[in-house]
Structure formats: structure tokens, C-alpha cells
Amino acid sequence: MTMTSERPVAVGRRRPSALRLGVRRGGLELRQFLRSRESVVFTLAFPVMLLVVFGSVFSDNEVVDGIPFTRYFVAGMIAAGLLTVGFQNLAIMIPIERDRGALKRLRGTPMPPSAFFLGKVLLVLAIGAAETVLLLALAFTVYDVPVPGPAQWVTFLWVSVLGITACTLCGIAFSSLVRSGRGAPAMVTPVALGLQFISGVFSLFTNLPGWMQHLAALFPLKWMTQGMRAVFLPESFASHEPAGSAELGMVALVLALWCVGALVVCRLTFRWTTRD
């Protein structure tokens, strides 16, 4: 009597797509971020703290006749918050991960690079949305900022999407200039704060020196703040912009060009390991 045995046929498992891996990576990035209390406090609470401080100090001031400073400042702080989440956060976080060897280990896994970057983008979108909701809630409930109409909300949406995309890509690109994770905050934070001061976040943009206005126009934050002012300030304020109008078409064009240019720089310069 002969006995025959059959081996089980191994069924190959299909490798998850880059999109699915990127979504999983985004969830992991978000959990790691929430476990770091310092990152949560600095990233989420700092813009809110600035809004409370400046809103309290200049509550009785008007940026122009009939428009309180707090209303102007809310528009600038929402744009600055997106800069903090996208540019500053990633430009500091990625060099630290590179120094620890985390990026090198990830590069050696089957996970495609696109999944890693998608995870970072999802992290930025989640934090940016949470921070924006906090700022809007404070603006509407404490500082009596009028709720925008439907057309203004559409402008708010595309300015936010283009702005945070440009800032995210710029943060990834700038991370290649930082030599070490230890020196990242010292190198990135002054750049982010400097852009806020020259882009009309803390003061009326047209009150700044001409050379400073021209310098700010080279970077996305100036256009983000200008787009946000078109959302939260009355149409009459557009006459106080440098060109005498909100220039929403120019806002969209400049932010889109920054997205494309920063993406090209990311692909050419991003490093998975330290220079040493």
C-alpha cells in the first residue's frame, strides 16, 4: 500500500501598495508625534499662545480704520501655523531621524520611498487641520471674527492646501541643508520666525520697508497671509494690499510654482544618511 503526501501549495501574498503603506506610515507618524509632548505643545500650542498674547495686548488697536488688529492677526497666524507645521516641523524632525539612523533603516526595507513621504504629508495634514481648527475656534468665539461666506471658505480651502503643500515640500528640501539633528532647531527656527516678521503676520505688510516687502514676495508665506486676509478681512481691505487688490490669481500661481520647484529640489537633494 503506497501512501502519497501532497505539499501545500504556497500562495503568494500580494505586496501592499505604496498608497496603503503610506497611509499606515502616516498613522505611525501621528502616534509617534502625539507621544512627544514637547512637539505637541510647541507645534499646536505655540500659535495659539501667540494669538492670545498679541490679541490681548493689541485688542483695542486697529490695523486700519474700522478693522481691529486681532482680525488681521488671525489671518496671519493661520498662515504662520501652516508654515510651522509643514516647514519648521519637518525641517527639524527629518535631520533628527537621519542622525538616529531611522531613515537609513527605512531605506533598507521593501517600503517604497513614496510611502515614507506620503506618511509625512499625512502627518502634516492632520496636525495642520487640528491647529487651524483651534485657531478658528478661538477667533470666532473670543475675538469676534466674522464667519466667512461660502466663497471665502473656498478661497480658504485652496490657499490652505497649496500653502501647506508648499511648506511641507520646502521643509523636506531644507532638511538636506541641515548637517545634524542637534543643530536643526538653531538653523530652522530663525528662518521660520524671520519669514513671519517680513510677511505681514505681526504688522501691516505695507508698513514694512520696500526692500523687505520685495524680499518677502519671494517666499510662500507672504502669499499665504495675503490669501488668508482675503478670507477673513472685508473686501475693502484689498485696497491696502501692495497691488491695491487681493491678487488671488497671483497667490495661486506663486504657491503652485513653489510646490513644483520644491518637489524638484526634494527629489534631487534628499538624503537618507548623514553626510559623514
UniProtKB/TrEMBL annotation:
TM helices/strands, residue ranges: 40-59, 71-96, 117-143, 155-174, 186-205, 248-270
Signal peptide annotation: none
GO BP terms, alphabetized: response to antibiotic
Residues covered by the ABC transmembrane type-2 domain: 38-273
Cellular localization per UniProt: Cell membrane; Membrane
Keywords, comma-separated and alphabetical: Antibiotic resistance, Cell membrane, Membrane, Transmembrane, Transmembrane helix, Transport
Highest taxon of source: Bacteria
Keyword Zinc: no
Membrane topology: Multi-pass membrane protein
GO annotation, cellular component aspect: ATP-binding cassette (ABC) transporter complex
Single GO molecular function: ABC-type transporter activity
Any one Pfam family match given in the protein's UniProt record, by short name: ABC2_membrane
Family assignment from sequence similarity: Belongs to the ABC-2 integral membrane protein family.
Name of this protein: Transport permease protein
